[in-house]
Amino acid sequence: MRIRWPRRVFAQVLLVQVATTAGVLMLVTGLFMAPLSSQLDHESMRQALAIAQTTAEEPGLPRELASTKPSPSGPIQAEADRIRQSTGALYIVVMNRRGVRWSHTDTARIGEHVSTDPSRALSGKDVMDIDRGTLGLSARGKVPVRDSAGHVVGAVSVGIAYDSVRARLMSTMRGLLLYAGAALAAGSLVAYGMSRRLQRRTHGLAFADISALLDEREAMLHGIREGVVALDGCGRVRLVNDEAQRLLGLGPDAAGQSLDAVLPPGRTTDVLTGRVAGADLLTVSGGRVLVANRMPTDDGGAVATLRDRTELELLGRELDSTHGLLDALRAQDHEHANRLHTLLGLLELGLYEEAAQFVAEVSQEHRASAEQVAERVHDPLLAALLVGKSAIAAERGAALRISPATLLQERVVDPRDLVTVLGNLIDNALDVSRTVGVELRAEGSTAVVRVSDDGPGVPPEQREQIFAEGWTTKRSPAHRGRGLGLALVRRLAERYGGKARVTARAGGGAVFTVVLPEALAPAADSERHEAGGGIRQGAAR
């Protein structure tokens, strides 16, 4: 039956760790037992050699070996039995120069020739080995027996039973295996705990599932049209997808760096790092309106998502402009209806001269108002904006006054930016006051926009805060959020290299000043543009 490899990460890691622990313990045990066995053998041979040397040093042994015959009841056999019993040796054999035994554990073998070669010991050398003889396998020590003149007259062979050596080894091995088993059990418990922890971290998924999830995550992150920024517990960028790089202007090397290092200070950085908390937070980055959400993770990090609401915000502002235009048209319709009723009454009363004079005055008043704006502001979009806002102000019972210092004859590089700035400032002023002053002038290629009101003003401690994204004191309309108008104004000014600020107005109220360097074309370009417009107009005529 084929054993199937487990699919779960938990089971695979546990099996590998237990197998690794068992293999390491077996290897360590083998490496320990091999030198231990050799050491025990050597110690047994040294013990046998020591007993043989002690026996050979007996004073009467050379004389008795030369003067007596081999006999079970001889003095050499008696002395050998005494030493054997006291030392626990397997045998002690005393032999003459011909290799004939004078002593042996088995007395029947006394007088016989030894079973192993005694030539080395009889030649005067000490011998240690493990060999098999008549009593079986043993650790042996052989030494020569010398007389008083130093001549070799025989030899002593001592054997230590190899079973005792093996018994010592096995007793040591039992203890070693006991410790090894305890270590294996402890290692298995540790492996089980680590595998269980890994199972919780991987949610019990298999390696194939994790690999598939990673592939799907990469495809999803780089395929969705929302920016995703993942942060670790230290606030460093762990992951940033393509859309987030585009929205935030980040490079591919942003991973591994802190957000404060790759993004400029501001609300966007504060939202992504969590210093500003909340859901669906609005922020402006690089002229784009973003909706940010931040979700903390278990490891102390967070995942932030970014949605580009620039187009939606532009549509919302266009809707605001449309509503403003409708309000202006409604105000003009109401005003024209009143004038027509007045004109109709004059005609019914037969006051024809008074009716004609009334029509002339109304026409001249309207034409004078529009012509006054057109003479001071040559850009048609800005002029139309001021005329429309004047009508809206009149409908609300407020007055929009164009400052005598207003003069903008130069061509505007991008009128839409000035429309955004001027429209937001006028709208904010009309929400809080009854009189709004507008000044729009050129200083070389720099456009200066100043809008004042007679409202409650802005406290000094809030004069920087009101330019932050999401900060507002007004109720949000249904189609979009509040708190972006002044933020967009400041971002536009900063993009041009200028600035936006608010100060107090003499007599109460606030004065918003926006400086936009390089927002106007140079004089030469402006003259060429006007000349080209004149030629085209002449050709059209």
Walk me through this protein's architecture.
The strands form three sheets. Strands 6-5-9-8-7 form a five-stranded antiparallel beta sheet, sandwiched between helices. It has a five-stranded mixed beta sheet with strand order 10-11-12-14-13, covered by helices on one side. The radius of gyration is 54 Å and the shape is rod-shaped. Strand 3 (136-146) and strand 4 form a beta hairpin. It contains 15 helices and 14 strands. With 541 residues, it is an alpha+beta fold.
Lay out the secondary structure:
Layout: H1 9-56, H2 61-67, H3 75-87, E1 91-96, H4 119-122, E2 127-133, E3 136-146, E4 152-161, H5 162-202, H6 207-223, E5 227-231, E6 237-240, H7 242-248, H8 259-262, H9 267-273, E7 281-285, E8 288-296, E9 302-308, H10 310-348, H11 352-376, H12 380-395, E10 399-402, H13 415-432, E11 435-443, E12 446-453, H14 485-495, E13 499-504, E14 510-516, H15 523-540
Parallel strand pairs: 10-11
Antiparallel strand pairs: 1-4, 2-3, 3-4, 5-6, 5-9, 7-8, 8-9, 11-12, 12-14, 13-14
Helix pairs in contact: 1-5, 10-11, 10-12, 11-12, 12-13, 13-14
Give the CA-based shape.
Answer: rod-shaped
Could you name the ranges where pLDDT drops below 50 across 5 or more consecutive residues?
475-482, 524-541
What is the name of the CATH class of the largest domain? Alpha Beta
Mean pLDDT: 77
Q: Which H/E pattern describes the elements?
A: HHHEHEEEHHEEHHHEEEHHHEHEEHEEH
Find the CATH superfamily of the largest domain.
Answer: Histidine kinase-like ATPase, C-terminal domain
SSE class = alpha+beta
CATH topology call of the largest domain? Heat Shock Protein 90
